Amino acid sequence: MNILFTMAIPTDLKQKQEQQFPEHTYNYIEDIALYENLAEIDCIVSYGSDITEAVLEKAKGLRWLMVFSAGVEELPHAKLQEKNIIVTNVRGIHAIPMAEFTMAYMLSHVKKLSDFASNQAKSIWDRSIETFELAEQTVIVVGTGAIGSQISHLAQVFQMNVIGVNTSGKPSKAFDKAIAIENLKDILPDADFVVSVLPETKGTINLYQRAHFEAMKKTAAFINIGRGSAVSEEVLQEVAKQQLIDHLYLDVTPIEPLPSDHALWTFPNVTITPHVSALSPKYLYRSFEIWLENMEKFQKKEPLLNTINLKRGY
Q1: Full DSSP string of 266-301
Q2: In this structure, are residues 260 and 249 in contact, taking their beta carbons and an 8 Å threshold?
Q3: What is the C-alpha to C-alpha distance for residues 212 and 231, in angstroms, rounded to an integer?
Q4: pLDDT tier, 165 (very low <50, low <70, confident <90, very high otherwise)
Q5: Percent of the chain, pLDDT > 70?
Q6: Angle at the Cα of 89 (from 32 to 75), degrees rounded to 5?
Q7: Comparing C-alpha atoms, which of 198, 203, 210 is closest to residue 235?
């Protein structure tokens, strides 16, 4: 198999795959537009953003696209289906860093770390700031896959009550309780935190409406580490401006990068991080674990891990 990587790969990982699968040919380039022999490539390993219809037209022999990302919404789905190309991703590798990031948000929220940081900048010693515990608080995790399950695991360590939300309401051992997403509004009044881990699909774009935030406690916090498209700019600004809930923690936003003059930057009850919750120095190493296992499965003509249903979008 002739394989093209379109990102920088550490030398130790190159050596590992070449020792494990010496029969294949490996090509490495960071800009796919500069690669002249796409027609000879059987498999492309990419972060996904550089895969266009034009690339797929040139890659006439392409059989498999391995995406080193969980999100596949930017891919040309129709063209991939037309050419009958297998698409797999690295779903699950983000679970640990994203769950840790979520816990950091929640711990910072109840321990008022931003208030203390602000006071330190002003040399103010003030012990009157009221802090709280995560124990016995309720967190609703919308999305019960690998990331949501890891969030639940860590939250339960802190003795939180965790409710998972998925499409069907199918029970999951990782959660204290699971409900169907169509019933989300019914349980929002119970939440101290709502964490969105949703991918971007037709069904999740603008899923959260003003009514969802109105159903929450005034003291609740909303955390979005999934996709920014799940909540519109307008709804976010209304929630922040009218203080419908206590705080919005946004690692993803409807527009990325968020323009420097965007109103969301200005609200004291909004915390924004630049889509970094999944980042980790272990990212490529975890990706390679799935990639190498799939290489073996591909050779044995076995079903591949994390095969994407292009019609559903995930």
Answers
A1: G-TTEEE--S-TT--TTHHHHHHHHHHHHHHHHHTT
A2: no
A3: 11
A4: very high
A5: 100
A6: 55
A7: 210
Amino acid in position 5? F
SS3 content of the chain, % helix, strand, coil (to 5): 35, 15, 45
Identity of the residue numbered 290: I
DSSP letters, 66-132, are: EESSS--TTS-HHHHHHTT-EEEE-TTTTHHHHHHHHHHHHHHHHHTHHHHHHHHHTT---TTS---
Q: Assign 71 a pLDDT band (cuts: 50, 70, 90).
A: confident
pLDDT tens-digit map of 206-238: 999 999 999 999 999 999 999 999 999 999 999
What is the C-alpha to C-alpha distance for residues 204 and 198, in angstroms, rounded to an integer?
Answer: 7
Q: Do the first three CATH levels of 2-93+281-299 and 95-272 match, i.e. the same topology?
A: yes
User: For 89, how many CA atoms within 13 A lie in the half-sphere containing its CB?
Assistant: 19
Domain covering 2-93+281-299, topology: Rossmann fold (3.40.50)
Where are the chain's structural domains? Answer: 2-93+281-299, 95-272
Does residue 312 surpass a pLDDT of 90? no
Alpha-carbon gap, residue 239 to 230, rounded angstroms: 14
Decide: 206 and 234 in contact? Cβ < 8 Å. Answer: no
The pLDDT of residue 198 is: 95
CATH architecture of 95-272: 3-Layer(aba) Sandwich (3.40)
- How many angstroms from the chain centroid is the CA of residue 243? 26
Which is more confident, 71 or 191? 191
Q: Quick one: pLDDT at residue 119?
A: 98
pLDDT band at residue 131 using 50, 70 and 90 as cut-offs: very high
CB of 144 closer than 8 Å to CB of 178: yes
Q: Are 291 and 264 in contact (CB under 8 A)?
A: no
